[in-house]
Each structure stands twice: as structure tokens, then as C-alpha cells.
């Protein structure tokens, strides 16, 4: 009896495949998160480039105003001090980019995107308004400074109405970022979409109006980043609008679906998110109304039916400008003229001369250069006019900003080889005495 019980106790277990399946009540509950878990994806090249671009924007955007102010203070410093300052600024900028990029890759883009919103929607417009206010408010410019003059891109006070409209569209963007769920009543949700669409339309118009300055903002962002503000705003609004339309599309597809039983496994295939086209069409129909309300309010404020357009048209030298540029005669500076204003022990002024009725300092280098140009106009007038136009386009705008005496010394030394070439041409090609031609310059 005992041996039989002992044999029954030591009877081996049946193989796993022969066992009966457990009842449903015995299956332990597994949360959906566990079934959906997947290995951490490897960061793609696109993700890395997007993070790098975001970090570059933040560093340039937040550091550039400080750097610009310090550069303005350092313009009166010695050349060596200015160069050292520039090298230090570049080094600090590179260090900040690397540090912020590593932090973004580790902690995600959340904080970086929030700072980008503040930069693009707040700081850059304010910085651009400052530029808009301090540049040439008229369409009059001295003839020799015309090629390098910057005119006011947006008319004042019309620009303040445009600023108010920008703040309204920025409010729609902020509401969309803060409240992902659909707003109630439905008209509030529709106004958020229409507000971002209207903001995109206005900023596309601004980018077209700025024209070449948008490209300059890409090439040299530290000083001209506000010129990129319309493009960056369109990117922000467009990405947020697309994301919100996808959320509304997901809400629409979820309506009418039965609730899943907790034991039901997750879907194995995922359809790509799609935007909600009815909401997009309604927003497209409402956005012209939003723009029309802005135009009416602007017209009532300014007392002119086209008040909303005057912010673009009442300017000069831009894409949508309608005012002509007026050229005024004035004292024009050239490289050799600048060089002659250096320290007397180096540039060795000879006498005072007159150009356009204005007294100027004349030294040997200036007289030789002008005699060479005089020879060109005399013997090869077409080539002389071409050389003059090319010089006026490339070099003359720079000359008007070369003020310190030490800069004139540098220009004098830089132009010395050209002076020797000019004199050699005069000796070889002038049919008369070169010294006679040189001596009568600026008399």
C-alpha cells in the first residue's frame, strides 16, 4: 500500500505539449504597454540633422543680439582687440552648440522647442522692428551710398497693425500647442486652424517682400536672422497645423469604434496618420475672413481703404514697394580717398584739393589713382565706364564705413601695389607727361 502511494507521488509530469491549455480565468493580465513595447529605435540621420538645426537656431538666435551689441561697442577698439573678440565669440558659440546638442539628444527636444517658439514668435519680430525703425525711413540717399543703403522694409505706423495681427496668430499657435484635445465650441477649434493658416499667408507675403534679405539671413544669420523670421514662422505654423489636423483625423476615426476587451491583443498593423480634410477645408474657407477682418480694422485705424497693404507698398527698394528711390548729390569716398585720411607720417598728404565742390586731402597715391582713371576714360572710354560701374558696385559702399585713422593706414598699405601698377601704366601709355596729368588732379 505504501509502495503504491510512493510510486504515485513520484510519477513524472506530462510533457508540456500534452498538457491541457489553461482556462481563460487563469491567464494573468498583461497591460497593453507591455504588449506594445518595442526596442528603442536608433536615431535616424534625419533626426540628428533636425536636432542640429534646432540647436544652431537657438544658439545663433539667443547669442547674436549680445554679440551684435558687443561688436558695436568694439568698433572703436584696436584691430588686434577686435580680432581677439571675434575669435572668442566664435569659440563660445561652437562650445554652446556642442553642449546643447548633447543635451537635446539625451533629454529630448521638448525644452528646445519651447525656447525656439519664444525666439521665432517673440524675440525675432521685436529685433526686426528695431532694425525697421533705425534704418533709413525716407527714400532719399546720397548718390555714392545708393548701392549700400538699407531702406525701411515696413512702413510705420502701419507695421504696428501687422504686429497686432501676428500676435493674434501666435496666440492661436500657443493655444494649439497647449490644448491638444478638440476645443469646444467647434468654432473655437476652427478659429485656431484658420488663425494659423492666415498667419502663414501673411508671413509668406513678408518673405516675398523682403526678397534678397531672406537669402542674406541664410548666408549671414548672426546679424540678419530677423530676415528669416517669416520663413521660420511659416515652418512652425505649418508643422503645428499638420499635427493638429492629424489629431482631429484620429478623433474622427475613433468615433463609433467599440471598446476593446482587455484580453484582445493589439493591432499588428498601424495605418499612417491622416489629416482631417473636412476641418482643413473649413479652415481654408474661414482664413480669408480672418484676413478680411484684419484689413477692415487696419483701414478704420489708418483712415485709408488700402491701409493693410500700405505696410508693404509705402516703402522703397523692396519687392512690393511702390515709392521710388531719390538720389541726392553728396561727398563720395573711395579707397584712395580713405587712405589719404590716415596718419600723416605714413600717407604723406601733399595738399588740399576739391571734388564736387567739397575739399579733400590729396596725397600722391590718390593723385596717381585718379590720373590712371582719367587715362582710361580718355583712351578707352567704354572700358573706363565699365571699371567705374564695377568699382561703384563692389567697393564704394564699403568705403563710407571706413572711419578710424588706423583703418586708413591699412587701406593705404593695401593700395600701394595698385599705385605702382597705375604709375607704370601711365609711364607706358600716356602720350604726354604722366607727372603733368598727376599734378592737375583735383585742382
From TrEMBL:
Residues 21-31 have a biased composition (Pro residues). Residues 1-15 have a biased composition (Acidic residues). The chain crosses the membrane at residues 52-74, 80-98, 110-130, 159-176, 188-208, 214-239. Signal peptide: none annotated. InterPro entries: DUF6688_C (IPR056491), DUF6688_N (IPR046510). Keywords: Membrane, Transmembrane, Transmembrane helix. The keyword NAD does not apply. Residues 81-323, 331-442 form the DUF6688 domain. Pfam families: DUF6688, DUF6688_C. Residues 1-44 are annotated as: Disordered. This is Uncharacterized protein. It comes from Polyangium jinanense.
